[in-house]
Write a structure and sequence with these properties.
By secondary structure, the protein is α+β, with helices and mostly antiparallel strands. It has nine helices and 21 strands. The chain has a six-stranded mixed β-sheet with strand order 1-2-6-3-7-20, sandwiched between helices. It has a four-stranded antiparallel β-sheet with strand order 14-16-10-17, covered by helices on one side. The longest helix is centred in the C-terminal third of the chain and has 21 residues. The structure holds zinc ion. Belongs to the peptidase M20A family. DapE subfamily.
Length: 402
């Protein structure tokens, strides 16, 4: 499915925000409060109780949904009008080799231009910006729409009991999200240069192949499982997938592991295992992919066992003729930064996939991602300040549409 995205409809000079920017110290204080809480997946490190206290002070009602060690909460403000959601995660990946960090990864370190610490980019500063923008919105006017926050402590892990559960809760309670802004770090050089409007799906697969073990000098009595695996791999990597389009990268199958058990140079292996992963566009469903893979493998080796795992659906937010979140976000970015954002669907999977559907417009908009998951993860403070201003501008624009 190739979808051409519409060009920016409103000139860059369109202006909604004329309020003073958020107090820098308050915004940095929020970022510090989150980074200083050690929250390696799925531990929230106390981030949620802190965030809930902040949101309740603003008049939100918060519901915690915790399962299997994963902490999640939904916060809602108002009961009428269109629902505008922020979504994000408080968990971070482990810091890795501590000796390579210039400072404690769980103490936010601020110098004149940067903030450093685990989660500084992915994505505790994004949540800090959401909080500050929400506070400014509620302090500046009475709003006619609903605000909803979806926060999980399991995005970096399996994500089985994270945002998916929150979406299920919304569905069971008949709550429809009209717009959702995910605060993942999406920028390449500076905040606002890139907005994600979709992500490819992902599917992993393991193929177990049985041959017959034997002596390398007597191949006539054996069946080499690695030779069969080689044919299977050749067949898989020769499959032709969609090439994608300007807005969506094509589908790609990559072999990730080949194993034939313990190695001895005079034994023909009697079994082998091949692992691979497919990143796929919205042209395919999981079912269609599974069918293609199973058929391809079976044509080479009928007895091979095919097991699929870690399925992640793709999503793509389409531009719309009525109220278009993508256009409003472009205008907010342009108003705050003076640059036109690129629309992208690149990168790995994100929790946007659990939220997006035909009724809910989802975008991802956040700070630069060049240091995510690295030692000395950091961002420029100016990028955090820009993000907060963009969120505030976007909330104002959405409130005018509600
Ligand atoms: Zn993230």
């Amino acid at each position: 499915m190739n979808v051409a995205l519409k060009p920016l409809l409103t000139p860059c000079s369109s202006s909604v925000v004329e309020k003073p920017p958020a107090p820098r110290e308050q915004l940095l204080g929020y970022a510090k409060a989150l980074i200083n809480r050690k929250s390696i997946t799925p531990d929230d490190g106390g981030c949620h109780s802190w965030l809930i206290a902040q949101l309740e002070q603003l008049g939100f009602e918060c519901t915690e949904i915790n399962r299997c060690g994963v902490k999640n909460f939904i916060a809602t403000y108002g009961t009428q009008g269109k629902a505008v959601a922020f979504a994000g995660h408080t968990d971070v990946v482990p810091p890795g080799d501590l000796s390579r960090w210039k400072s404690d990864p769980f103490i936010a370190t601020i110098n004149h231009s940067t903030i450093t610490g685990r989660g500084a980019a992915d994505m505790k500063t994004g949540i800090a910006a959401m909080l500050s923008a929400t506070k400014r919105l509620l302090g500046s006017q009475s709003i006619k729409h609903r605000l909803i926050w979806l926060i999980t402590s399991d995005e970096e892990g399996e994500a089985e009991y994270g945002t998916k559960l929150l979406k299920d809760y919304l569905d069971v309670n008949g709550v429809l999200l009209d717009y959702c802004i995910v605060g993942e770090p999406t920028a390449t050089k500076r905040t606002g240069d890139t907005i994600k409007v979709g992500r490819r799906g992902s599917l992993s697969c393991e193929i177990s192949i049985k041959g017959k073990q034997g002596h390398v000098a007597y191949p006539q009595y054996a069946q080499n499982a690695l030779h069969i695996a080689n044919k299977v791999i050749q067949s898989l990597v020769s499959l032709e997938w969609d090439m994608g389009c300007h807005d969506f990268p094509g589908t790609s199958l990559q072999i990730t592991h080949i194993d034939s058990g313990e190695f001895t140079d005079n034994i023909i292996p009697g079994q082998s295992c091949v692992n691979f992963n497919i990143r796929y566009s919205a042209s395919y469903s999981q079912e269609s992919l599974q069918s293609i893979i199973s058929k391809t493998v079976s044509q080479i080796d009928k007895s091979a066992q095919v097991t699929f795992s870690r399925p992640c659906l793709p999503y793509l937010t389409h531009p719309r003729d009525d109220i278009c979140l993508i256009d409003l976000a472009k205008q907010a970015v342009c108003n705050v930064t003076g640059i036109f954002p690129t629309l992208s669907t690149s990168g790995g999977t994100s929790d946007g996939r659990f939220i997006a559907d035909s009724k809910t417009q989802v975008i991802e908009l956040g700070v630069p991602n060049s240091t995510i998951h690295q030692v000395n993860e950091s961002i420029n403070i100016d990028d955090l300040i820009s993000l907060e201003a963009i969120y505030f501008d976007l909330l104002l624009r959405l409130s005018k549409q509600a």
